[in-house]
Design goal:
heterodimer, A: alpha/beta, Rossmann fold, five-stranded parallel sheet, 5 strands, B: alpha/beta, Chemotaxis Receptor Methyltransferase Cher, domain 1
């Protein structure tokens, strides 16, 4: 089963995203900030990371830059999922190695569509 | 809603758009007609039915029809037809039309324009091969309101995330406010939108090389499907392509087209030897 790490400091968002991704067929783990997520990735890289931008301890962009430096860190698909909805943030995320970008609020169709575009559904 | 009122609205919508409304769609009819009643300062759907019976006001009847025929649309909806267009159909036409350097593509029932603009983005990706070519992408829809919206090329944040890769958002859109995005002029200028009714004048003249008529026939009864497919066959090039929705087929409906084996949803003229 494919795995997804959901990284968001909102428990509600993690719960909603988990429900959507589990229905699609992903086994999900959760982290509430970039640092915890990075430690989880050092133990085992997931197939997919759904990543918030603004979080305490370590933000999503710093996490993304760190994971892309790790051995094998270029393999997980990383989808930003954030309230940052301007072009500059999107371009910065893509430049740092994000594979896709979701502007909150989201629904199951948006997540499913992004996974289809990445060919991982 | 009273059954005679449902019958009245369903008959009106069927006559004007071909859309068949069965009684199990009564809830949909009600939810979509309440805003129409409000717009016309009519207190109830019962009163609206009375007005339709008594006066047959054209503006009201157009609004009722449009309310029932407006459907959601996504960019690159279902993906596969667009992949087929990009990888197979467009290269084929670039080869076949090399002398004429002119391709005409029709997005039938274009709604708010996402399908037509998706095709324009694909053609834009092939700009090098299409240099010096004339590519007409024409979107038609029954609804004046949808055509006006499609022409603006403006979509909500929610809409630009449904089916559209973020790389395309960055490349082909400009953010005009926090949650509004607009297709860039170079893509918008590639597409024309016109009013057209699949039951009467299509709003487009032939010949057409590629017809996207997806998720429309599904709402029609069999004789209407047969008639519309016949009219499409009349204006489609003999070596052109028809794409229907995943739940639609020509089998048992029209003898003017045949299925392209191995390519779900793709149809060609019955006398075409493609591939």
């Amino acid at each position: 089963m494919k795995t997804c790490l959901i990284v968001d400091d909102s428990r509600v968002i993690r719960k909603v995203a988990r429900q959507i991704l589990e229905a699609i067929g992903y086994a999900c783990e959760e982290a509430d900030n970039g640092q915890t997520a990075l430690e989880a990735c050092k133990a085992k890289l997931p197939d997919l990371v759904l990543l918030d931008w603004n979080m305490p301890v370590m933000n999503g962009l710093d996490f993304l830059q760190a994971i892309r430096q790790m051995p094998g860190g270029d393999t997980p698909n990383v989808i930003f999922c954030t309230t940052e909805n301007d072009l500059a943030h999107i371009q910065e995320a893509l430049g740092a190695g994000a594979n896709e970008y979701i502007m909150k609020p989201f629904d199951a169709d948006i997540i499913r569509g992004k996974l289809e575009q990445l060919g991982i559904i | 809603m009273k059954s005679e009122d449902f019958e009245l609205f369903a008959t009106l919508v069927k006559q004007r758009s071909g859309l068949v409304l069965t009684p199990d769609k009564a809830y949909l009819l009600e939810s979509r007609l309440f805003p129409v009643a409000r717009k016309h300062n009519i207190k109830s759907l019962e009163d609206m039915a009375q007005i339709v019976r008594a006066r047959r006001e054209e503006v009201l009847m157009v609004d009722i029809t449009e309310a029932m025929t407006t459907n959601e649309s996504f960019f690159f909806r279902d993906q596969k037809p667009f992949a087929l267009f990009q990888r197979t159909i467009l290269p084929y036409l670039i080869d076949k039309r090399a002398n004429r350097k002119h391709i005409r593509i029709w997005s039938a029932a274009a709604s708010s324009g996402q399908e037509a603009y998706s095709l324009a983005m694909i053609c834009s990706e092939a700009a090098t091969k299409l240099q010096g070519w004339k590519v007409d992408i024409i979107g038609t829809d029954l609804s004046k309101e949808m055509i006006a919206r499609a022409k603006t090329g403006t979509y909500s944040q929610f809409e630009v995330q449904r089916g559209l890769p973020v790389t395309h958002l960055v490349k082909y859109f400009q953010q005009i406010s926090g949650d509004k995005w607009q297709i860039k002029d170079n893509i918008r200028q590639m597409v024309q939108f016109r009013e057209g009714n699949l039951l009467s004048d299509f709003g487009i003249e032939g010949p057409i090389d590629v017809v996207f008529c997806r998720n429309v026939l599904i709402y029609f009864d069999l004789p209407t499907k047969t008639r519309v497919l016949g009219l499409i066959a009349d204006i489609m090039q003999k070596d052109g392509f028809l794409l229907l929705g995943g739940a639609e087929t020509v089998l048992g409906v029209s003898d003017r087209f045949k299925i392209v084996s191995g390519e779900h949803g793709l149809y060609v003229d019955v006398n075409n030897n493609y591939p």
